[in-house]
Structure formats: structure tokens, C-alpha cells
Design brief:
heterodimer, A: about 350 residues, alpha+beta, Immunoglobulin-like, 3 domains, five-stranded mixed beta sheet, 9 helices, 12 strands, B: about 130 residues, mainly alpha, about 60% helix, disordered N terminus, binds copper (II) ion
Chain lengths: ~350, ~130
């Protein structure tokens, strides 16, 4: 018996550790990196703690009801148990939890102070159109990646042109629906730097699960530098005639020739399409295809040649029919758009 | 099983009324719907996103008073049936009298539950002051 216990113990410890390890990571509400997420995690722990206490009480009551001596209870005591434990206690516990939960909401809905960073995000099947509003009244359109300065409030305006999506960065805050014809708001206060993951949280069609985005919380200066770089038009191709530059230039021509420019914008070039994500700095993003592929050469090739296999139902046509040299050149060009 | 001979004059089962049982839960549901719809319509049509919710809070307060009055009457009618005759709990005999008392008692319990639920739903007036 004791030998068996000895074996079981590390197994249990390992199992618990394995389960708890799931609580951290770039997409966990239980590993908060923002003020709102901290509140929500607090709510979770209070609720979980309350549930454990209530559960233990109920189990103890059941146990003592089965093993206690019936004759020891007077009728009055029994009635007290039923009314106290069955009516009063649950009502009070629920009232307490309700007051605590509701009391949290006004703070979560507080608007950001005037002058805060403002970002519009539009959820579109199955990617994210992101617009940063700059202090001088300008606007920078980006896609599929959000960067925020640490310690600063960021105010999001959320919308959708097609179906309902939901904008959720579990590490930073709760989720907010993006509803066609309406504009919803969400305020975030990131508290530590790091790379996190956002995910569409409202079923929106075939590739709903493949609609994610990386979120980078950076130091203030690094963020400002990043935004300035994103604002600039695409790097002009080098004039030198090395093989790499030739490949990039061929890719740039192919981008216009094959009609990619009808849907995509590359600021500073003739590509001004507005249907798909802005690709001005696509090579500098952390991921491709709304958080589903790494940002590297093979992934670009795969995205262009097998779009529909990578993302079922995708609204971009695949370019499987192009000769592979073209895939390669297009990929080289897009990678060069840092 | 002992069969009691009922000398009481309880209503015949054809005349027993099940509807009274669900009056309170229905009031709760209607209170919830009215509160929700009032807030939704107000914020969509009248108030801006940051606009005041004051009239809606008053409306919910009034709905709540009306609902609680309705639930109280329903509960009292249940209590009357629960106290019918001289028998006390549990009302578990297969007799018209116990059926009458049982339905009354169940009405009282549901009225209590509905009153608490209505108050829980109304609690939002203490937390929300605008349409955000
Ligand atoms: Cu979705």
C-alpha cells in the first residue's frame, strides 16, 4: 500500500504541474499582462475559490448526513439546515458574487483618457484590418498585427463589414464583439512587454479558427519608432543588379502583372487595392495569413500557391498555376517589404 | 400505505389550477425582458454611447416594484392554499386536499425564488449609469 502511494505521488505532482503549465503562455487569461485581464483573472480566482468552498461544504454536509446519527437532530435543527443551507446561504453567496462581478464592470467600460492612442480594427473574413490614428490626425493602415506601448491606455474602435467577429486578446483584456453596422469600444492597459496572441472569438465561417494575430507590447520609444517606420511607404527596390535585387524586382513586377494590386495596397507603389490586407510592410510582420504561418520564404510561397489549402474558404484566389519561379520572386519581393 | 379519509372540501382535480404555479416565474421573465429591451432600445435610439441611462434606471425600478407586487400576491395566494385545512407539511398524500396544499406550497417556493431572481436582475441599476 505505502509502496504504491510512493509511486503515485510523483505521477500526481507531474499531472498537476502539466495542467497548471497550461495556465501560462501567450494566450491565457490566467497569465495577465494588462489591467483588464488582471481584474478578470481576479474574478476567476474568487469564483473558483468560492466554488471550492461551496463544494467542500456540500460534500461535508452530505457526508455528515449519511454518517451522522439521525436521532441527534431535532426537527427544528433539521428545518434550520434546510432553510439556512438551502435558501439563505445560496442566496447570500450568489448575491455576494453578483455584487462583486457587477461592481467590476463600470471600471472595465471606462473610456480611455483623451489623447490616448486610438486604433480602429475591422474584423473581416478571416483577417484583421488595423488603423492607427496618429496624434497629428493622420491614419496608418496595417493588418494582422497589433503593437502597443507598455503602460499606456489604448482605445480600440471595433467594427466589421461582413459578419460578427469578436476581438479577444486574453492576456490583455476580455473580448468584445465586432458587429456589422455598429462600432464597439474596448480599452486596454498593457502592464508588461511581451508577445501575446489574439484570436477571433465569435464563429464567423470556415476559417474562424484561423483568424488570429500577434500582439506585441513594447517599450514606448520602440513603439514610436515602429509606428514611424510603418507609416513610411515601402522600401524602394535597390538599383544594383545583383541576383537577389533582380529577383525582388521581378517579384514587384509580377505583383502588378498578376493582379495582386487589385486587392492589396503597397504604399509607395501602384498597388492600391483595398480588399485585402495592406502589404506595405508585410515582410516585417511576425506571422502570415492572420497569425497562422511563420513569416518566412517557404510560408510566402505556400500562401501564394496554396492559399485555399492553407486557409479554407479564403477570399484570396490561389496562384497555383504560376510557374514556381514566379512564386519565388513574389515571395522575395514581399519579404523585402520590411 | 395508510389511506387517509379526506373530509375536507378541496377542489376536484378538474378545477385545480396549475397556471397559478408559473405566474411568479413568468413575472420574473417578463421583468427581465422589459428591463433588457428598454435599455437596448433606449441606448440604440435615444442615448449616445456615453449617454445617460437615468430614465432606464427609473423604468427598471418601476418594473421591479410592479413585479414584486405581482409576485407577492401570487405568493400569498399560494400560502393560502398551503394552509388549507389543518394538515402540515409534507403534503404527500394522494388526496385532493394534499394536492391542493402541495400546489400552494410549490407556488410559495417559486414566488420566493422569482422574487430573489427579480431583485438580482434589478441590481444592475446600482452599477450602470450610462450606455457604454
Ligand atoms: Cu471568427
Amino acid at each position: 500500500m505505502s509502496g504504491k502511494r510512493f509511486i503515485e505521488c510523483p505521477v500526481i505532482v507531474f499531472a498537476v504541474a502539466l495542467v497548471l503549465a497550461g495556465c501560462t503562455g501567450p494566450q491565457s487569461s490566467l497569465d495577465p499582462a494588462g489591467r483588464e485581464a488582471e481584474r478578470i483573472a481576479g474574478l476567476f480566482w474568487w469564483m473558483a475559490g468560492g466554488a471550492v468552498v461551496v463544494w467542500a461544504l456540500v460534500v461535508w454536509l452530505a457526508w455528515s448526513a449519511m454518517h451522522g446519527r439521525v436521532s441527534r437532530h431535532t426537527e427544528r435543527q433539521a428545518r434550520l439546515y434546510v432553510i439556512g443551507g438551502g435558501v439563505l446561504f445560496p442566496t447570500l453567496v450568489l448575491a455576494g458574487l453578483l455584487a462583486y462581478g457587477l461592481g467590476m464592470m463600470p471600471a472595465l467600460l471606462e473610456p480611455a483618457p483623451p489623447g490616448s492612442l486610438k486604433i480602429s480594427v475591422s474584423g473581416e473574413q478571416w483577417w484583421w484590418r488595423v488603423r492607427y490614428h496618429t496624434a497629428d490626425g493622420g491614419e496608418v493602415e496595417l493588418a494582422n498585427e497589433i503593437r502597443l506601448p507598455v503602460g499606456e491606455p489604448a482605445s480600440f474602435e471595433l467594427e466589421s463589414p461582413d459578419v460578427i467577429h469578436s476581438f479577444w486578446i486574453p492576456s490583455l483584456a476580455g473580448k468584445m464583439d465586432m458587429i456589422p453596422g455598429r462600432r464597439t469600444r474596448l480599452v486596454l492597459h498593457p502592464t508588461r512587454t511581451g508577445t501575446f496572441r489574439g484570436q477571433c472569438a465569435e464563429f464567423c465561417g470556415d476559417s474562424h479558427a484561423l483568424m488570429a494575430f500577434p500582439v506585441v507590447v513594447m517599450e514606448k520609444d520602440a513603439f514610436a519608432a515602429w509606428l514611424t517606420a510603418q507609416r513610411a511607404p515601402a522600401a524602394t527596390p535597390q538599383a544594383d543588379a545583383g541576383p537577389e535585387a533582380r529577383r525582388v524586382n521581378r517579384g514587384r513586377d509580377a505583383f502588378l502583372e498578376h493582379g495582386c494590386s487589385a486587392c492589396h495596397t503597397v504604399r509607395g507603389t501602384l498597388a492600391r487595392g483595398a480588399i485585402g490586407p495592406d502589404l506595405t510592410h508585410v515582410g516585417g510582420r511576425l506571422t502570415l495569413g492572420a497569425g497562422i504561418l511563420p513569416n518566412d520564404h517557404p510560408s510566402f510561397v505556400r500562401w501564394i500557391a496554396e492559399t485555399d489549402r492553407v486557409k479554407p474558404g479564403v477570399l484570396m484566389p490561389h496562384y497555383r498555376m504560376l510557374p514556381s519561379g514566379e512564386h519565388d520572386a513574389l515571395a522575395a519581393y514581399l519579404e523585402s517589404l520590411q | 400505505m395508510t389511506k387517509r379519509i379526506s373530509t375536507e372540501d378541496a377542489p376536484h382535480e378538474k378545477r385545480e389550477n396549475l397556471w397559478l404555479l408559473i405566474v411568479s416565474p413568468t413575472i420574473w421573465a417578463v421583468h427581465f425582458l422589459f428591463s433588457y429591451i428598454t435599455a437596448a432600445v433606449w441606448c440604440a435610439k435615444v442615448g449616445s454611447p456615453g449617454g445617460s441611462l437615468q430614465p432606464v434606471r427609473w423604468a427598471i425600478a418601476i418594473y421591479t416594484v410592479i413585479a414584486l407586487i405581482g409576485i407577492t400576491f401570487n405568493g400569498l395566494s399560494g400560502l393560502r392554499r398551503h394552509n388549507f385545512g389543518t394538515e402540515s407539511l409534507p403534503h404527500d398524500f394522494d388526496t385532493p386536499g394534499d394536492r391542493h396544499r402541495f400546489l400552494g406550497f410549490a407556488t410559495v417556493l417559486l414566488a420566493g425564488l422569482s422574487a430573489v431572481a427579480t431583485l438580482f436582475a434589478a441590481a444592475v441599476v446600482f452599477y450602470f449609469f450610462d450606455c457604454r
